[in-house]
Predict the structure.
Amino acid sequence: MQVDFFVRKRLRTLLFVAVVLVLTWGATALTSFDFAKGLAAFPQALTWGVQNFYPDAKSLERLPNITSQLLETLTIAVASTTVAAVFALVFAVAGSATMRLNRLFALVSRGVASLFRNIDIAAWAIILLFSFGQSALTGYFALFFASFGFLTRVFMETIDEMGASGVEALRATGAGYVATVCRCVVPSCAPQFVSWMLFMIETNIRSATLIGILTGTGIGFSFDLYYKGMNYHAASLVVIVIVATILAIETLSNLIRRMILRG
């Protein structure tokens, strides 16, 4: 029996590898991608990057402007996430299996969350461009809608994982719906809520950089402007500033998470 188990496991592994190879070959054939040319071009690309894509003294003069654009991007990312978290909490509480008002509203809440979550943030930006044009408001709403869908979903799951014992205990004492939410659901789930919100802020800072290229705002627009203008030294400085900021935000976020979980 044990030998048969290992044979079946090996066959499944071989089948999986074969499927991956076939899919890779099919995608390569459809896109006319040449692995040999790709590998041959890699050293040239690396050489070009070393020779051209680095900040010089002249590009450092643009650092104040780059920092200003970065602050705009950070503000949009944080503002959209925090406001989305408030709306997501309302929909999550009303739509969760533990605290739902009724089956219909729970169904609507889950449907809205799934719709907003499954539309990519770039798609939101493109859709909103027709209404608001290239502006910071377009980037804000794109990040808001994507954050709202994601946070509603994870907040619902967090509330459902909490269990119904505390809720039932408060209801047995005669507590109303709002009192139960404020005294049981929010305090019990607050660490997880904050943790997910911090994760979303990290994600939105990365996304806001890309969205800025579409909306013509923030640090993403600065990178696009410098790169298309062949000012590669300034473009590389933008990349370094973005990477440093993301690493700093991630470090701070992880520190806050640890403090919350310990508390």
Observations:
- The CA atoms of residues 70 and 245 lie 9 Å apart.
- Residues 2-42 form one domain.
- The radius of gyration is 24 Å.
- The chain is about 85% helix and 0% strand.
